[in-house]
Amino acid sequence: MIEPYQAVGLISTMRGIRRREEISWNLEHISHMVKAASWLSSMDLPVRLICIPEGGLQGFTDEVLDLDHETYARECAIDIPGPETDYLGRLAQQWNAYVIAQAKARHPEFRGRFFNVGFVIEPEDGTVILKHHKVVPLLPVEHSMTPHNVWDRWIELYGRELEAFYPVADTDIGRIGIMMANEASYPENARGLAMNGCEIAYRGPYPAPGVMSGMFSVQNRARALDNNMYVIGMNLGTYYLDKESLTPIDTFSGGSQIVDYRGQVVTEVPYGAGSTWIAGTIDVEALRNFRQTAQWDNWMKDLATEQYQLVYERPIYPKNLYLERAPYTHAEYREHVTRKQVQLLQERGVWARPARPAPAETRAPAETGAPAETGAPAEARAPAETPASGDADAPLSAETPAPTVG
Predict the structure, then answer these.
(1) 178-197 burial code (b ≥16 CB/10 A, e <16)
(2) Which domains does the chain have, with CATH numbers?
(3) What are 311-333's pLDDT values in tens digits?
(4) Read out DSSP for 134-174?
(5) How far apart are the C-alpha atoms of 48 and 373, rounded to whole Å?
(6) Residue 116 contacts residue 134 (beta carbons within 8 Å)
(7) Which stretches of 166-318 are assigned E, i.e. beta strand?
(8) Is it the case that residue 104 has pLDDT exceeding 80?
């Protein structure tokens, strides 16, 4: 039987990095926060789970500054396991708690590339027991690779099964899964974790506009309610762009929450700037009992899976986007992906066009992947593409040429 315990989510101050060795400042800060949060939060129940927010180790320099992917992979991305996870492993041992954290990390099968990786460390000997590769980055700006970006090779390596995309660690404090930041914007990702057995989902931070509008809270509660699982959604605290920055900015605007398996807020910290934490009780036995005994709102038992498969029969987002090339810059992504994805849904009739088109925009072409006439010079437009083999509805192929840069 799993006794109730406290989970802690750090709301840490963070300095973005430009070199891998600069992570040490963030790690030292995290160690002080773990000490304070674990000591004070264990006065009633033991702290058995410590969550470090996405960005807590490295910040978001690659995204904010639109840095070259290969340079960041070489100079800033870490290896898992490695010195940074060893450091966190010692904290897990010291405080007898599982630790969940995140880092931009390299992969031995994809040289010169990095993924956004969430990981779980167990307290017995401080080793990494789970690695989750982020499946949906902050698409307009984040340069991290995803399994879907290299779909064919990923399937070869790990198989076409839930564990390859939504791994869950079965631990002595419950079944733990990870959905970082923008992953939880899509209900399918939480459902993937739940269908693989997840009971406690780590949810990474969300940028300020999504917190101010209420999206972060709505998503946290909906993902917990839909799947009858706990969601620990901690945001970051103060953000310094890099080690030289003197101006602290609250880029995330607070809103940290722990939500239970019925979508109810267990604890909430509205404030963001500074360094603090969120803590709340996790009762896995109560969750399991609810899943077993409820007649109505333990929803997953009633899934009509044959029917729901119809929703996703036609491909939408292109697979293998970066199988043969590095991720796009911000401007390239808007031109080669975002614009075409909007056109795709309009041409299929999924989205109706607004009466007033965007500036300099004319009607999009038929659903062949050909570029829209945007008013830009012909030489500046992406060349016409054909759907990837086997994907008649794919909006663009894996061989999308890179625009000339510089």
Answers:
(1) bbbbbbbbeeebbbbbbebb
(2) 5-302 (3.60.110.10), 325-406 (no CATH)
(3) 999 999 999 999 999 999 999 99
(4) -SS--TTT---B-GGGGHHHHHHHH-SSHHHHS--EEEBTE
(5) 57
(6) yes
(7) 169-171, 174-179, 200-203, 230-233, 239-240, 256-259, 265-269, 276-282
(8) yes
